[in-house]
Amino acid sequence: MSLSMSRPATPNRLRHPARFNSLELPVSRSQSRARPRRTVEFGVYNHPTSTDGPTSDGTKAVAPETTPEKDGIRDERGEEASENALVWHIYTDEAQKADSSMIEGWSRSIDVLLVFTGLFSAVLTTFVIQAYALMLPNPTETTNVLLAQLAGQSNTTHATLVSSTPQSSPRQIHWVNGLWFSALACSLSTALISMLAKQWLQAYLPNVSGSPRHRARQRQARYMHLEAWHVPGIINALPLLLHLALLLFFAGLVVLLWSVDLAITLATWVIVTFAYTSYLASIVLPLFYTDCPYQHPITDQLRMWIFPSSSNSGPPPISTYCRRGQEPAKVIYDARICNATFEDAVDATALAWLFSKSTDHEVVSTALQAIAGLPRDFSALRILRDAGALSLIEQGFMCCFHKDTTVDLQWHLVDPGRAELYCRAWMKLTRGTDEQWPFDLVEPLWMLQDLQKHPDAAAVASCAVALSSFNSHQSQWELLVYLARCSAGEIQLAQTTQCCILDSISECFVRWEMPLAVIEDTANRAVPVLLNMLHLTEDLPNSEIRSAVALVLYIVTSGGVIDLGLYMSEDRRRGEYCELMIEALSAIVETPGRFGVHDTPLLDIVGAELARLATPIVAQSERFPQRLRTIARSSLSILYADGRIAQGIVADSILANVLHLLFPPVYLSESQQSIFVTTLVETLETSSHPDITNWAVRLLEVLLSGCSLAVSQSFVEGNGISAVVRAARAGAVDSRRLQIDSLRTMCAYIASTTKQYNATTTPRSALDSQFDILLQSDFWDTLNSIVTSRRWWLFEVSGHWLPAIVELCRLRPQAKVWPQVLKTFKDFADRNVGEEGYSETLSHLDIIRKILAEDGQMLAASPGSP
After folding, report:
1. How confident is the model at residue 857 (pLDDT cuts 50, 70, 90)?
2. Can you tell me the distance from the alpha carbon of 736 to that of 254, in angstroms, rounded to the nearest whole number?
3. Are 736 and 705 in the same domain?
4. What is the model's pTM?
5. What residue intervals traverse the membrane (predicted)?
6. Angle between helical axes of 736-758 and 779-789 (0-180°, round to 10)
7. Which residue has the higher pLDDT, 363 or 857?
């Protein structure tokens, strides 16, 4: 695969230039951020014998000296965005101040509007009453007109005077009334909406209890919905409605005076035109001149509508939170951007609001540093990237250093704690994309990487270098060295730092484009370190380190064929932990030398970890496909035969599940079968756990059925006869099933040895010694007591036990055990007359009698017989 290794340049003009007192960052980038000629050496690290290395809570890690603190509240490493993190306390304080100022400003503005609306409506009503009267027919006026007409007939001069008086036409009267009634409607509507807005503002500030993050989420959700429903725009538009009412009033006044007196009309028109020209200028000029003092509430709203790209310095609107879209940078595996949850969107917009609106340097720093504590599967990183967090983080990181431009032209580290947080936040925002560390901040990053007194900060810096240097294996090897030194107890790293290193290694392996030899060499170095990490965290089953190690082991052993976007969630990693570990550990068992696993302790770790996986496989067999079960059985068989899974090494319950999973055993060569049988016999002799005994006996039955001479010899030489007999005796108290399995196992062994004896290629001397041991053992007494003490299924006796006993009787009829065995089984048959298998049982007993009778005649005919 081919991946782009550079991201779009950081803009010269940053969105928030006043947030940090620093120079603007140049935009030059390069392909790799790894330090030239830097070498990494793997030392000899002792195998850990205790869990003094990684810890689940990171309490042994060295905390930075400049950890943000306020009112006694200090965030632990990795908890910068937790439920009670400092950033939510700051957010609550800042939001309370901002909301109080915003609500108070709006309330005062609405109060002024209500007062002005009341006065204006009262004045306007007076004019409306007079204008409306002009529209109604007036009887007195009609009489006067008629009198004037009569008088005109007799007095021409008087008629001329009456007709020359200026009068408003009916159309003008209608226009005046229309304009003034519209103005009155606008004025009263402003009053109505203003009263509603006062109620909205009152409902915006409820009392919310709970944790700091809960209160912050509740406030941010209200703020988001306030903007989503355009409440600020409505409140800011209220003056416009009143100004429109005033304009309509003036328009009606001009229309009314137009036909009455032109001079008064022109004077009024000039005054109104000048006033509204100034009004429009006070709104328009601030849109183009940001320093213009003619600020108006509607100006900001118009700027957002007309110039959304330049005015939107905060988070995107709520309608875009879950919208599918493309990142500015190329996304490699970040599947989270399309499925942002509402909770994550609220957290992201809260942080974006904090670092976008605040002018306090410490507040902005805390908000940006809190990004470092966001969970791995945080689904709303796009909101933070769109709000300009990446540029601010780079500026904040630069502020943690000082470049001496007078003498040595060197960078000097000022605040390692904050530098680490900015570095982690940068990785959080860019992981899974093609973003790269700014080239002009590489030297400070290298300085942080060399910090000896702060291993966590140095390790995080190494992660940033590795994620920006996929073509340099040395940077990835350095991450392995940190884990190796941590597991050996040389340094102490917090759990958050270890998880960061492991996640970085995962991404490096997935996105590497290195020669196969380099990848194999790295895998050879990585697997031993990862196994030691598993060993150190074996008592911490819920640790995120274990799930991260499982993912890295799978990637390393499988060649990096995985979609990391599917494993960003910790729940997903833990849910597939068993599957990943089975694949990875089985690959190591198959070719341990390829992965640098040569010594016994590492193989013991593999055995112990793989044995733990037997329990979920047995308990939830339907969850695991047949292929995985087969892989696990094959690997466990090898490890168990090698003695790496035995009593004392793993718990009895785990060992019982391992033996359960191994039944029936997978295909094994003759030599492997011999070793396996020897190990099973050792387990039987040393364990008294009923489940271990049950499954060991069942496995022996399968392995001894039709086995070779080498396998039967391993069974006898390992004292297997005594072990199985002891299990049969234990079954007399604990389990009837165990007795049956034990007798079946012994009969399977007898059948196999007799078959080998009859084969012409088998040396009979070895089998003779086995027969001697068998006939002199306690098996026959145990057999007689078991058959006598309980009622057995007759077909079990005739189908499994007697056929093998008959064959042994043919080979050794002179043994002293046969008369008692014959009597025991004859009595048993007499107690089960007519049952299924009764006739077969009598047939086998008759054969034994004939064999013994013939042997007696031969003894009688032999010289020296009594």
Report:
1. low
2. 113
3. yes
4. 0.78
5. 112-135, 178-197, 240-260, 266-289
6. 130
7. 363
